[in-house]
Design brief:
The structure is a homodimer of 235-residue chains.
Chain A lengths: L8 E3 L5 E11 L4 E7 L9 E2 L2 E3 L6 H13 L5 E8 L10 E9 L10 E2 L2 E7 L10 H15 L13 E2 L1 H12 L5 H11 L2 E7 L9 E5 L1 H9 L7
Parallel strand pairs in A: 2-7
Antiparallel strand pairs in A: 2-3, 2-5, 3-4, 3-9, 6-7, 8-9, 10-12, 11-12
The first copy, chain A, binds a DNA duplex (30 and 30 nucleotides) through helix 4.
Chain lengths: 235, 235
DNA sequence: CTCGATAGTGTACCATAGACACTAAGAAAG
DNA sequence: CTTTCTTAGTGTCTATGGTACACTATCGAG
């Protein structure tokens, strides 16, 4: 976008535009999903892209990411972490745009994701069946996926993808999907329970056509206490 | 800095300024060192700060970091990696400035660091005896230190801080300084040699007043080969 | 030749990761 | 009510790797 006649902001030196883009992950029955938005403007009109937008001058980068997420997908109060900043020269065909990429983790059951806001079309895609993406968003998404895969094993962020109360089977399934390999049930349970960061509840799952499993809850306090004592989470 | 009358670049919406800052690490006899630059302009005139500067419109972020490093410290061709992007509202008292922070690793022996360039005063400081820093640079430096401590154990980046040929004692010392704990000599050597990513040379160290140690070299090719086979570096 | 300093080497124990298979519980169907 | 189907839930053994630990070899300096 060229400076228009009514352009009000003037600087001595040229400045790149600054945006944020967010890779939102969620877990469905058997896949890791990503939220994408169909563009209604050129360039890449009609193509799918990551939610995101310009950083305002009166908000931090984190705030910008949260605001865009809220505006474009309705998601609020979810796990959000900065990923990497992309500044290649021709990322955007219009002009120089530097984008600070974030990734976010959502529990699908707990959040009503608006399928469409801002007159845009938003939808979930499996990370294994992605459409062509606008800009360099395929790169960003791949980096976010890589980061999630690496981080989930050493920090208890996987819980962000599950409802507050979950079964150990759900937790194991989460790791199997993200790490893309099968885990041994007995070893997995042994390891998780031995860390003492999940709390047994007195509830069991409902509406299943077989023996119901016990529900657990992630114990943030216990995790922090253990971490201070030198404990290192690992799966 | 307010827009001056001669400001030539106009935009419809306000844009933050975009800079890069670099935390350059090196290893001296017994400390991890950081390169700092004494500011010769307000704000924070006279105070120490990280090397860095504005991102030009015709260069990528990595290029900007390399250029600033070269201009301000004379360093070239060194290990450089993006760290995090800082965008708090009042980082800079003049106006909104977003900075993409990098960290770099240098081998002190192999590089002549110009003590002073750009009419600025550059110097090495031990990470344990830092002066007050300008802006939020103390934060950035702490984050870089943390990243280095975490990363050095799982990726063979420590070698970047050593000369091409080094003794196992030097390598062990590097880890002891960065991780801030003593390591067992026999176990360390066993582990390093068993990974088969360091190559024995037929040289030994010189000018030492005791038995001279054998020199080794990091074998990048072997490392890549092993990595493809699923090997994971760890110290 | 002796002293001082660092190089260089092997073993034993313990803890943890991973392989592996059966019984228990509950819903659904006949 | 009995059978069937499906998932919950549980323990042991082995292999591997981490860690603790002490002495001899080599070389330069005096």
């Amino acid at each position: 976008m060229r400076s228009k006649p009514e352009a009000k902001f003037q600087y001595e030196y040229a400045r790149p535009a600054l945006t944020v883009d967010i890779v939102v992950f969620a877990l469905d029955a058997d896949d890791l999903m990503v939220m994408l938005i169909q563009r209604d403007l050129e360039p890449f009109e009609g193509q799918w892209a990551l939610p995101g937008g310009f950083v305002h001058l009166d908000e931090t980068l984190d705030d910008a990411a949260r605001r865009e997420l809220q505006e474009e997908t309705g998601l609020q109060g979810i796990f959000l972490e900065q990923l990497y900043t992309y500044g290649d020269l021709n990322r955007d065909p219009r002009e120089r745009v530097v984008t600070v990429a974030y990734y976010a983790l959502v529990n699908l059951e707990g959040h009503n994701v608006q399928a469409s806001t801002d007159a845009r079309n938003a939808a979930w895609f499996s990370v294994n069946e992605l459409p062509d993406l606008a800009f360099d968003h395929a790169n960003i998404l791949a980096a976010a996926h890589e980061r999630l895969r690496g981080k989930v094993r050493y920090q208890p962020i996987g819980f962000e993808l599950l409802p507050e109360k979950f079964t150990l089977r759900q937790l194991q399934h989460l790791y199997e999907v993200i790490l893309d390999r099968e885990l041994d049930k007995r070893n997995f349970r042994k390891k998780v329970l031995s860390m003492e960061i999940v709390q047994e509840t007195d509830e069991i799952e409902k509406d299943v056509a077989h023996r119901a499993a016990r529900l657990y809850r992630f114990d943030q306090k216990a995790y922090e206490r253990l971490t201070e004592q030198g404990f290192h989470f690992e799966i």
